[in-house]
Amino acid sequence: QVQLVESGGGLVQPGESLRLSCAASASIFSFNAMGWYRQAPGKERELVAEITNIDTTNYADSVKGRFTISRDSAKNTVNLQMNSLKSEDTAVYYCNARVVYGKNSRSNYWGQGTQVTVSS
Question: Could you give the CA distance from residue 73 to residue 89 in angstroms, rounded to a whole number?
Answer without folding.
Answer: 27
